[in-house]
Amino acid sequence: MTQSQNADLTALQDRQGAEQELFELLRIPSVSADPAHTGDMARAAGFLRDKLQALGFTARVDPTAGHPLVYAERLDAPGQPTVLIYGHYDVQPEAPLEEWVTPPFEPTVRNGRIYARGSTDDKGQAYAHVRGVELLSKAGPLPVNVKFLLEGEEEVGSPSLEAYLKDHADELKADVIVISDGSRFAPDVPTVTYGLRGLSYVEIHVQGANRDLHSGSYGGAAPNPINALCEIITRLKDDQGRITIPGFYDGVEEPTPEEREMWAKLPHSDEDFAASIGVSDLPGEQGYSTLERLWARPTLDVNGIWGGYQGEGSKTVIPAKAGAKVSMRLVPGQDPDRITRLVQDYVPTLAPQGVQVEVKALHGGQPVKVDLDSPFIQAADRALTRVYGKPAAFGRTGGSIPIVAAFRSLLGAPVLLVDFGLNEDAPHSPNESFALEDYHNGILTSAYLLQELGK
């Protein structure tokens, strides 16, 4: 490694250029869930391919059964480690549009933040790695081999990615896979994430009569699917906040005493956390701290519910059907397929008389936990220390990236999660944003991380 590659890279940063390029990418409405944006998906993929080609990568856009993905490689360091950087260029739908202060696909800077859909999830974080490679290239030869895999279906569950990994396993071989698609613990706390919860996502469908019924003519005699659904949901947890599905907690890995001690030292306040989301209390499973419940305990939450009349005014009907979307975040020791089967077996047993209940599986993902003694984790700690002037905190996250487990099983490489965003960025919500300083620190972190991995 040359002396220049060990030097401080801040003097080489082109902050204005980095911002303008990200703004150009953010203006492309690459909404993977909406077929109307198919052309925009191709445009975003082409933008990334062209940029990586300009940086000396062999880059291409590969079709899939769904949206295309971008693969690029620059293998300039024979004998050195190979780093595969994963990200996604697709974004969530912008709705509800009326809640955006400024247009979601016209990036706007307010109070040091870029407001745009995809700014933090994941265009801003993924593009920080693109610019990180560019920054490091200014100091000399790259100290490692670098590959990029940027997909266009993460926000719809990555349905095409696993098949792509299987078909291109040899080409995608790497010593470590780097992902930045989440949040740091706090603005002044650089963080290495070493655990992700898994996911089981289902829909509960309740059917009553063969049509909507007049509530005066049939009320008191006919079954009401909405009432039945509410009863079912209420019985899925007890008064201690524990999930009642038989076998749900079998095999659950408890946080270690060392983890509990490490998390207790983090600058967390229940009062501040509650205030940040505008609530007065933080209900949950009793016997566990807030961070333990967020990071190391499984959950069950209703994400959507429907049935009956939803329009203005009144309509006195007993609906024929009702339904709910339910997600369960899972922890090490739980298998999503097994949990889904348990739910499908148990929920129908809770059905009141007169209704039929079906549980449909949607998608899921395995939980992931990384060994804190990994040399890759230590390299990330050193890189973050160089940027922030303090050692990294080590935490898990309550979210899920289902494809991470597939990376580990199909490519056989460890995954390194180094997140540049914050929860306050409001990913998936109206007025999503990304702090400019976090973007530029992400670029520096990416460059220094490649240096450290090269050592």
Automatic annotation (TrEMBL):
It comes from Deinococcus metallilatus. One of its GO terms (biological process) is proteolysis. InterPro entries: Bact_exopeptidase_dim_dom, Cyt/Met_Dipeptidase, Peptidase_M20, Peptidase_M20_dimer. It comes from the Bacteria. This is Acetylornithine deacetylase/succinyl-diaminopimelate desuccinylase-like protein. Pfam families: M20_dimer, Peptidase_M20. GO terms for molecular function: metal ion binding; peptidase activity. Keywords: Hydrolase, Metal-binding, Protease. Signal peptide: none annotated. Residues 194-354 form the Peptidase M20 dimerisation domain.
